[in-house]
Amino acid sequence: MLIAKSAPDVPVLTGPRRILTGGTAIRQMGANVLILDDAFQHRDVMRDINIVLIDAARPFGNGFLLPAGPLREPLSVLERADIIIAVGTADHYGSKSFDLTEFENKIRPFNRYAPVFYAIRKPTALCRGGAGSVYSPGHLKGKKICAFSGIANPAAFKKTLMFLDADVVRFIAFPDHHHYNNTDVKQLQDAFDHAGAEFMVTTEKDAVKLDQFPFFLNGLLILTIEMDILPSRDALERLIILKLHTP
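^ that's the sequence the OP posted. Answer follows.
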Protein backbone atom coordinates (compact mmCIF):
# COMPACT_ATOMS: atom_id res chain seq x y z
CA MET A 1 0.00 0.00 0.00
CA LEU A 2 2.82 2.39 0.87
CA ILE A 3 4.58 1.70 -2.44
CA ALA A 4 1.33 2.21 -4.34
CA LYS A 5 0.71 5.56 -2.63
CA SER A 6 4.29 6.68 -3.25
CA ALA A 7 4.21 5.78 -6.95
CA PRO A 8 0.62 6.39 -8.10
CA ASP A 9 1.45 6.05 -11.82
CA VAL A 10 3.09 2.63 -11.41
CA PRO A 11 0.95 -0.54 -11.20
CA VAL A 12 1.56 -2.37 -7.91
CA LEU A 13 0.42 -5.98 -7.65
CA THR A 14 0.55 -8.33 -4.66
CA GLY A 15 0.31 -12.10 -4.39
CA PRO A 16 2.24 -15.07 -3.01
CA ARG A 17 2.97 -16.50 -6.49
CA ARG A 18 5.14 -13.93 -8.20
CA ILE A 19 4.97 -15.71 -11.54
CA LEU A 20 1.20 -15.07 -11.64
CA THR A 21 1.35 -11.40 -10.65
CA GLY A 22 4.32 -10.85 -12.96
CA GLY A 23 2.47 -12.47 -15.86
CA THR A 24 -0.55 -10.25 -15.19
CA ALA A 25 1.65 -7.15 -15.21
CA ILE A 26 3.11 -8.14 -18.58
CA ARG A 27 -0.03 -9.33 -20.34
CA GLN A 28 -2.61 -6.87 -19.00
CA MET A 29 -0.55 -3.79 -18.13
CA GLY A 30 2.18 -3.86 -20.77
CA ALA A 31 5.05 -3.99 -18.28
CA ASN A 32 8.54 -4.63 -19.65
CA VAL A 33 10.34 -4.23 -16.32
CA LEU A 34 9.29 -6.04 -13.16
CA ILE A 35 10.59 -5.01 -9.74
CA LEU A 36 9.99 -7.75 -7.18
CA ASP A 37 10.16 -6.83 -3.52
CA ASP A 38 11.52 -9.45 -1.11
CA ALA A 39 11.80 -12.13 -3.81
CA PHE A 40 15.32 -13.56 -3.61
CA GLN A 41 13.80 -16.99 -2.87
CA HIS A 42 11.10 -16.79 -5.61
CA ARG A 43 13.21 -18.45 -8.27
CA ASP A 44 10.34 -19.46 -10.58
CA VAL A 45 10.59 -15.92 -12.00
CA MET A 46 13.62 -15.35 -14.22
CA ARG A 47 15.49 -12.23 -13.17
CA ASP A 48 18.25 -10.09 -14.69
CA ILE A 49 19.43 -8.64 -11.39
CA ASN A 50 19.41 -9.92 -7.82
CA ILE A 51 19.82 -7.07 -5.32
CA VAL A 52 20.30 -8.26 -1.74
CA LEU A 53 19.87 -5.94 1.25
CA ILE A 54 21.73 -6.92 4.43
CA ASP A 55 21.66 -5.39 7.90
CA ALA A 56 24.98 -3.57 8.27
CA ALA A 57 25.13 -3.98 12.05
CA ARG A 58 24.32 -7.72 12.15
CA PRO A 59 24.74 -9.06 8.61
CA PHE A 60 23.76 -12.67 9.38
CA GLY A 61 22.02 -12.40 12.75
CA ASN A 62 22.96 -15.44 14.82
CA GLY A 63 23.92 -17.38 11.69
CA PHE A 64 21.04 -19.87 11.88
CA LEU A 65 18.20 -20.58 9.47
CA LEU A 66 14.55 -20.09 10.34
CA PRO A 67 13.11 -20.78 12.88
CA ALA A 68 16.32 -20.80 14.96
CA GLY A 69 17.55 -17.57 13.35
CA PRO A 70 16.69 -14.93 10.74
CA LEU A 71 18.23 -16.59 7.66
CA ARG A 72 15.86 -17.98 5.04
CA GLU A 73 18.58 -19.80 3.09
CA PRO A 74 22.19 -20.88 3.71
CA LEU A 75 24.79 -18.15 3.31
CA SER A 76 26.17 -19.91 0.25
CA VAL A 77 23.22 -18.61 -1.83
CA LEU A 78 24.69 -15.11 -1.62
CA GLU A 79 26.71 -16.10 -4.66
CA ARG A 80 23.52 -15.39 -6.67
CA ALA A 81 23.59 -11.71 -5.67
CA ASP A 82 24.55 -9.22 -8.39
CA ILE A 83 24.47 -6.19 -6.07
CA ILE A 84 24.74 -6.14 -2.27
CA ILE A 85 23.49 -3.21 -0.18
CA ALA A 86 24.35 -2.81 3.50
CA VAL A 87 21.49 -1.05 5.26
CA GLY A 88 21.84 0.90 8.48
CA THR A 89 20.61 3.91 10.42
CA ALA A 90 22.31 7.30 10.45
CA ASP A 91 23.64 6.81 13.97
CA HIS A 92 25.20 3.48 12.97
CA TYR A 93 27.25 5.13 10.25
CA GLY A 94 27.90 8.39 12.02
CA SER A 95 29.19 10.01 8.84
CA LYS A 96 29.70 9.37 5.15
CA SER A 97 33.31 8.47 5.86
CA PHE A 98 32.30 5.46 7.99
CA ASP A 99 34.53 2.48 7.17
CA LEU A 100 32.55 -0.66 6.34
CA THR A 101 35.55 -2.79 5.43
CA GLU A 102 34.59 -5.22 8.19
CA PHE A 103 31.17 -5.69 6.56
CA GLU A 104 32.72 -6.45 3.19
CA ASN A 105 35.14 -8.92 4.78
CA LYS A 106 32.14 -10.88 6.09
CA ILE A 107 30.46 -10.87 2.68
CA ARG A 108 33.37 -11.80 0.42
CA PRO A 109 33.69 -15.50 1.46
CA PHE A 110 30.20 -15.99 -0.04
CA ASN A 111 30.33 -13.54 -2.95
CA ARG A 112 33.66 -12.31 -4.27
CA TYR A 113 32.56 -9.93 -7.00
CA ALA A 114 29.19 -8.24 -6.38
CA PRO A 115 29.53 -4.45 -5.96
CA VAL A 116 28.68 -3.30 -2.43
CA PHE A 117 26.71 -0.13 -1.71
CA TYR A 118 25.65 1.38 1.59
CA ALA A 119 22.15 2.67 2.29
CA ILE A 120 21.52 4.95 5.26
CA ARG A 121 17.96 5.49 6.50
CA LYS A 122 17.77 9.28 6.55
CA PRO A 123 14.79 11.01 8.23
CA THR A 124 13.29 13.60 5.89
CA ALA A 125 10.11 14.94 7.50
CA LEU A 126 7.39 14.57 10.11
CA CYS A 127 3.86 14.54 8.72
CA ARG A 128 0.75 15.03 10.80
CA GLY A 129 -1.43 12.00 10.05
CA GLY A 130 -4.36 12.97 7.83
CA ALA A 131 -3.88 16.70 8.42
CA GLY A 132 -1.23 17.56 5.86
CA SER A 133 1.02 19.52 8.25
CA VAL A 134 4.74 18.88 7.71
CA TYR A 135 7.59 19.53 10.14
CA SER A 136 11.35 19.08 10.08
CA PRO A 137 12.69 15.93 11.79
CA GLY A 138 14.47 18.31 14.15
CA HIS A 139 11.03 19.12 15.58
CA LEU A 140 11.45 16.08 17.86
CA LYS A 141 14.65 17.32 19.51
CA GLY A 142 14.21 17.33 23.27
CA LYS A 143 10.53 16.38 23.01
CA LYS A 144 9.02 13.58 25.09
CA ILE A 145 7.51 11.12 22.67
CA CYS A 146 5.62 7.85 22.69
CA ALA A 147 6.41 5.74 19.62
CA PHE A 148 5.26 2.46 18.15
CA SER A 149 5.98 0.28 15.15
CA GLY A 150 5.15 -3.09 13.63
CA ILE A 151 8.00 -3.50 11.15
CA ALA A 152 10.75 -6.10 10.75
CA ASN A 153 13.21 -4.12 12.86
CA PRO A 154 11.43 -1.82 15.34
CA ALA A 155 14.73 -1.25 17.15
CA ALA A 156 16.08 0.55 14.08
CA PHE A 157 13.11 2.92 14.18
CA LYS A 158 13.68 3.63 17.86
CA LYS A 159 17.38 4.17 17.18
CA THR A 160 16.50 6.71 14.48
CA LEU A 161 14.27 8.62 16.90
CA MET A 162 17.06 8.71 19.47
CA PHE A 163 19.46 9.92 16.78
CA LEU A 164 17.08 12.87 16.36
CA ASP A 165 17.55 13.59 20.11
CA ALA A 166 13.94 12.72 20.90
CA ASP A 167 13.22 11.67 24.49
CA VAL A 168 11.51 8.30 23.88
CA VAL A 169 9.57 7.82 27.11
CA ARG A 170 7.59 4.83 25.79
CA PHE A 171 8.15 2.55 22.84
CA ILE A 172 5.76 -0.23 21.83
CA ALA A 173 6.83 -2.86 19.28
CA PHE A 174 4.32 -5.00 17.40
CA PRO A 175 5.09 -8.05 15.22
CA ASP A 176 6.16 -7.45 11.63
CA HIS A 177 3.24 -6.82 9.22
CA HIS A 178 0.92 -6.25 12.18
CA HIS A 179 -2.65 -5.24 11.32
CA TYR A 180 -4.02 -2.82 13.90
CA ASN A 181 -7.42 -3.27 15.54
CA ASN A 182 -9.53 -1.40 18.11
CA THR A 183 -7.74 -3.06 21.03
CA ASP A 184 -4.34 -1.96 19.71
CA VAL A 185 -5.48 1.62 19.21
CA LYS A 186 -6.86 1.77 22.76
CA GLN A 187 -3.62 0.30 24.11
CA LEU A 188 -1.59 2.92 22.25
CA GLN A 189 -3.81 5.79 23.31
CA ASP A 190 -3.64 4.66 26.97
CA ALA A 191 0.15 4.34 26.74
CA PHE A 192 0.41 7.85 25.33
CA ASP A 193 -1.87 9.31 28.00
CA HIS A 194 0.07 7.68 30.86
CA ALA A 195 3.54 8.38 29.48
CA GLY A 196 3.25 12.15 29.71
CA ALA A 197 4.46 12.41 26.12
CA GLU A 198 4.03 15.43 23.88
CA PHE A 199 3.75 13.49 20.61
CA MET A 200 3.05 9.99 19.37
CA VAL A 201 5.24 8.96 16.44
CA THR A 202 5.14 6.02 14.04
CA THR A 203 6.47 4.94 10.63
CA GLU A 204 4.92 5.36 7.19
CA LYS A 205 4.49 1.59 6.92
CA ASP A 206 2.43 1.56 10.11
CA ALA A 207 0.43 4.68 9.25
CA VAL A 208 -1.02 3.18 6.04
CA LYS A 209 -2.62 0.47 8.20
CA LEU A 210 -4.44 3.01 10.38
CA ASP A 211 -6.73 4.62 7.79
CA GLN A 212 -9.74 2.98 9.44
CA PHE A 213 -8.96 4.92 12.65
CA PRO A 214 -8.96 8.53 11.34
CA PHE A 215 -9.30 10.23 14.74
CA PHE A 216 -6.31 8.31 16.08
CA LEU A 217 -4.33 8.79 12.86
CA ASN A 218 -4.88 12.55 12.91
CA GLY A 219 -3.08 12.76 16.24
CA LEU A 220 0.07 10.99 15.04
CA LEU A 221 3.33 12.29 13.68
CA ILE A 222 4.59 10.07 10.87
CA LEU A 223 8.34 9.97 10.30
CA THR A 224 9.23 9.76 6.61
CA ILE A 225 12.63 8.50 5.50
CA GLU A 226 14.66 8.08 2.35
CA MET A 227 17.75 6.04 1.62
CA ASP A 228 21.02 7.92 1.25
CA ILE A 229 23.07 5.70 -1.09
CA LEU A 230 26.86 5.59 -0.81
CA PRO A 231 29.17 5.99 -2.63
CA SER A 232 26.41 7.54 -4.78
CA ARG A 233 22.84 6.99 -5.92
CA ASP A 234 23.88 7.73 -9.51
CA ALA A 235 26.47 4.94 -9.42
CA LEU A 236 23.85 2.43 -8.28
CA GLU A 237 21.34 3.56 -10.92
CA ARG A 238 23.97 3.36 -13.69
CA LEU A 239 24.89 -0.17 -12.62
CA ILE A 240 21.25 -1.29 -12.65
CA ILE A 241 20.64 0.18 -16.11
CA LEU A 242 23.84 -1.44 -17.38
CA LYS A 243 22.82 -4.86 -16.11
CA LEU A 244 19.33 -4.52 -17.58
CA HIS A 245 20.86 -3.90 -21.00
CA THR A 246 23.45 -6.67 -20.76
CA PRO A 247 22.30 -9.87 -22.50
